[in-house]
Amino acid sequence: MNKLALPIVIIFAIIFIFSTSTLPNRADVNSPSNLHVSPTYIEHTEKDIGIENIVSAVLADYRGYDTLGETFVIFTAGVAVLAVMTRRRTS
Amino acid sequence: MTERHESVLLHFFVRTFLAPFIMLFALYVLVHGEASPGGGFQGGAIFAAGVIISRLSLGLNQGSYSFLSRKTLLILACLGLGTFTFMGIAGVLFGGSFLNYGVVPLSWLDYIWPGDLGQRQMGIFIIEGGIALGVFATIILLFDFLTFETKGEDVP
Amino acid sequence: MIWQLEFALYFLILISAVTALTLRDLIAAIAALSTYSFLVASLLALMGAVDVSLTEVALGAGVTGVLLVGGISLMQRRSID
């Protein structure tokens, strides 16, 4: 293994640990995302969509475009592997 | 390297006791995804794992499998993605925005499958099925093409 | 939240990641990678993100390992570097 790799990893680990110390704590009720983003979805999901699971509602309906792109990425990976491996058989 | 033998007993146990329960759990994750953790992506991946484990028990060097050939899998993947995209375009056709399932008239499906689901839930259910079908077929397609036959050569 | 359990999980994740990087036998490295993925999934489930955990344990620990084993069956088993 390269001798330069270990010091670089240690430096980045120190930077990341120091930068995470300024983030809000996990499950902090006063963090910005828990003040207005989460309550909006919790209040409006039952009324807008009508299903209980908020994660499913966000994935399938609020952010449906994202899920569509994600499925297309998976399909593109399959088609790419198909193209490469089919080329291998004919040569 | 040792030779690869087909184990009839292993295949019997896997396809009798292991794969059906994995597929049943996958169907539960898919269908019950609106009320509990789960959904199309996870259900399709677990269902593909159930099919892959029964193919692994047959041995890796099978040229082609009789159950779900490659052409069928490609058609299934296109069908799943097509379902999702068609539901998105249907929202535009019925006067809403793209991927807005609330305006698609799907309430006639209650006669086929009774339940108290609204139009929007029915649309979400259909696209979850489309995602599951696409992910399922694509993962098995990846597996089939990555475990291409190595013409019996030893892998050192 | 049991912090001892979480600390043990972090420790095991670190050990399995380093093991997956340093092993020469690629099949064993895939096993270590699947272990890493499973431990990350259990950490996510402990944090309350059950959906992400389900995806991680289905794709990361299950399907990815099988696909990598299938890819390695096409090539050399031992790593060179």
Keywords:
heterotrimer; A: 91 residues; mainly alpha; 4 helices; C: 81 residues; 3 helices; flat
Number of helices of chain B: 5
Shape of chain C: flat
Kindly, what is the distance between the CA atoms of the first and last residues of chain C, rounded to a whole number of angstroms?
A: 42 Å
Largest sheet of chain C: none
Taken as a percent bin, the fraction of beta residues of chain B is under 5%
Helix content of chain C: over 70%
The percentage of residues in β strands of chain C lies in: under 5%
Low-confidence stretches of chain C: none
**Structural class of the secondary elements of chain C?**
mainly alpha
Distance between the termini of chain B: 7 Å
Pair with the biggest interface: A-B, 28 and 38 residues
Write down the overall mean pLDDT of chain C: 88
Low-confidence stretches of chain B: 150-156
- Pattern of helices and strands of chain C: HHH
The count of β-strands of chain C is 0
Give a description of the structure.
- The complex is a heterotrimer of chains A (91), B (156) and C (81).
- With 91 residues, chain A is mainly α.
- Helix content of chain A is 76%, strand content 0%.
- The relative contact order of chain A is 0.05.
- In chain A, helix 3 (54-62) packs across helix 4.
- Chain B is mostly helical and 156 residues long.
- Chain B has five helices and no strands.
- Chain C has one domain (3-72).
- In chain C, helix 1 packs antiparallel against helix 2 (26-47) and helix 2 packs antiparallel against helix 3.
- Chains A and B meet through helix 3 and helix 4 of A and helix 3 and helix 5 of B.
